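Researcher: Let's do a round of design. I'm pasting the structure tokens now; please hold your answer until I've finished.
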């Protein structure tokens, strides 16, 4: 085995972690479902996803592990010695990032006895997603499977990084929540970009305005900030970033972070060279969007002013501070103990289950407590309250329990992401909270 400490060659990182924000924001649950149900040929992205996930085995932490020799085949490498060199470069990158290599790359010898082809048992590695990501980044991007894997593992790794750092599951956020999150990220990263630009020689406010415009021109096909406003029919005083949807914001976030990295890592000096670098990065992001979705940023829909969304979010935060019992009686559409509503239990019980969950500490509740609480707010017939002949509980309680037991059904509110199945009960999700606020709002 080559000593990884002696490998001092360049380690390639063709994709930054932050690119995943763009890719995640470009993918809606509806698009994923459409792709999952569509037939896929062996060379399509859908088929490659299936092959990557199918090659992994479940790990104790709930994620997956891959064997290096299987990943070798998936990435299109025919010879182990060449792929092993890629693995070793990835190990260097892992160590340089401050991680313990053995936490992500576990050396194994799966065969017992001698190798059937002669010699020692075949050497292999068990890899987690982060190791697969590093391997993909250090492999040859000219190979189509590698180019795909670089994107794929970047998405998965970035999702986990966000969840670990911010306690945030990006997939569960509503569009407005994604916009708020990304807009805050753009503000923070623009400060870092300004610092890098200043170090490169962009000193004055006028110079910085030109520098910013060059980035927009690269991303928006030659259009500067004022041209983008005209194209999107925005007021002259509007901030174009405040009217971007999550996809467009994430593309701009990628432009910003990658330009900042380019200025610093390449030690670029001179305002003209800095402007050219910003244009080049913006242009590359534009090409990536065209290749991935066929949609260019100037043609993405104009969104509601994010400042208005922020005000609504602050209002909802104040609302969440109201006492739970008071909150459940406030919405005009909501049930109350004084006037329980008659509903279609088959079609609408899940909506009122979400309403009750929305005012619970942590948004969760045991099933038995839910069965006891719901009759205070919805009217039940004697038939529903009657005990089942073959059960000790009532027909109504069985309907509530079915909300959990039927969670694999596509029409179920857990399957659709409005709630989670937790041990002994339910927990409302961000999507469920959004539904409650919209459905029961006066």
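Researcher: That's everything. Go ahead.
Model: Designed sequence:
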């Amino acid at each position: 085995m080559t000593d990884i400490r002696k490998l001092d060659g360049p380690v390639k990182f063709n994709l930054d972690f932050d690119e995943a924000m763009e890719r995640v924001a470009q993918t809606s649950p509806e698009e994923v479902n459409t792709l999952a149900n569509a037939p896929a040929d062996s060379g399509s992205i859908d088929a490659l996803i299936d092959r990557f996930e199918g090659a992994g085995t479940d790990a104790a932490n709930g994620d997956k592990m891959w064997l290096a020799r299987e990943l070798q085949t998936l990435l299109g490498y025919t010879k182990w010695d060449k792929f092993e060199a890629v693995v070793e470069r990835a190990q260097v990158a892992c160590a340089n990032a401050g991680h313990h290599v053995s936490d992500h790359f576990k050396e194994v010898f799966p065969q017992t006895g001698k190798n059937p082809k002669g010699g020692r048992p075949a050497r292999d590695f068990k890899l987690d997603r982060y190791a697969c990501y590093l391997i993909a980044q250090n492999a040859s991007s000219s190979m189509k499977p590698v180019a795909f894997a670089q994107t794929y593992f970047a998405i998965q790794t970035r999702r986990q990084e966000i969840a670990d750092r911010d306690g945030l599951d990006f997939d569960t956020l509503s569009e407005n929540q994604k916009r708020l999150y990304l807009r805050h990220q753009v503000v923070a990263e623009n400060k870092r970009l300004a610092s890098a630009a200043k170090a490169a020689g962009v000193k004055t406010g006028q110079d910085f305005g030109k520098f910013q415009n060059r980035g927009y021109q690269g991303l928006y096909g030659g259009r500067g900030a004022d041209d983008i406003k005209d194209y999107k029919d925005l007021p002259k005083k509007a901030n174009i970033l405040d009217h971007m949807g999550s996809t467009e914001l994430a593309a701009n976030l990628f432009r910003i972070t990658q330009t900042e990295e380019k200025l610093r890592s390449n030690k670029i000096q001179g305002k003209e060279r800095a402007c050219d670098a910003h244009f080049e990065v913006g242009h590359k992001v534009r090409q990536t969007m065209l290749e991935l979705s066929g949609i260019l940023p100037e043609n993405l829909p104009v969104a509601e002013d994010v400042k208005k969304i922020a005000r609504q979010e602050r209002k909802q935060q104040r609302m969440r501070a109201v006492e739970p019992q008071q909150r459940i009686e406030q919405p005009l559409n909501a049930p109350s103990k004084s006037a329980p509503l008659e509903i279609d239990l088959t079609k609408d019980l899940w909506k009122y289950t979400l309403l009750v969950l929305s005012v619970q500490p942590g948004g969760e509740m045991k099933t038995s407590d839910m069965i006891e609480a719901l009759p205070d707010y919805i009217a039940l017939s004697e038939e529903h309250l009657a005990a089942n002949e073959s059960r000790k509980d009532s027909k109504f309680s069985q309907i509530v329990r079915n909300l959990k037991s039927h969670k694999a059904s596509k029409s179920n509110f857990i399957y659709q992401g409005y709630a989670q199945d937790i041990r002994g009960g339910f927990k409302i999700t961000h999507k469920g909270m959004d539904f409650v606020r919209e459905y029961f709002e006066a």
